[in-house]
Amino acid sequence: MTSFERLAGRQFDLCELKRRLHSQYPRPPPARVSATGYGPCLLVSRECASGGTSLARLIGERVGWHVFDREIVDEVAHSAHVRRQLIASVDERVRHGWSEFRRKLAEGEGVGRETYRHHLREVILSLGHHGEVIILGRGANYILPAECAVSVRLRASLEVRVRRFAERERISIERARRQVEQTDVERAAFIREAFGRDVDSAEDYDLVLDMDELGVEAAADAVLAKLQEKLGVQPESVPCAR
Prior knowledge:
Elements: H1 3-24, E1 41-46, H2 52-63, E2 66-68, H3 70-78, H4 80-88, H5 92-96, H6 99-106, H7 113-130, E3 133-136, E4 149-155, H8 158-169, H9 173-195, E5 207-210, H10 216-231
Parallel strand pairs: 1-3, 1-4, 2-3, 4-5
Helix pairs in contact: 2-10, 3-7, 8-9
């Protein structure tokens, strides 16, 4: 078993543990229950070095949800063994609704990049069905039903992000600028090619936060307020599964 498979297995084990905890320590029901069979979820889109990872982790700690970042979602989509494990954990009636994805794969529609996108959708649908997850990037807000999740976009000026990135990675400002700009271009291109959307379109998000002056704690408070308003999520409603 690879180190990633061990990590992914631990992620799924934690999800199962949380379900058992919920049965022992029931939380108040959400104010608005999704009829889609998905959620509740938090979906975080962000410009490079705008603080998305820190925000996701902080909120995950406060509400007891697990964070699936871009790298983990990508690896699950590429790993046949772990993908099967995750998809098998989803209710059969939900999986039945994915027949269109399976049909296209079986008929050979799309290879390489398109095949990956089909797998990516199945992975995100699986995580969304389990609920109580935070997904960073990968266009999850274009895949999951809007009523099951709060979708957030983080922005900040290029100068602020370059400085933060340089300090975090301990590299020069010039190198940091190149990497930040390249990452922004790659993320925008992925969303445009995969979903035909502009990643900066404010109408695709429940909340758009400017992180130039807003700290991670204040941003987390704003997101938690939106989670409570839209989905009835209460911070620290369940003992932490650690």
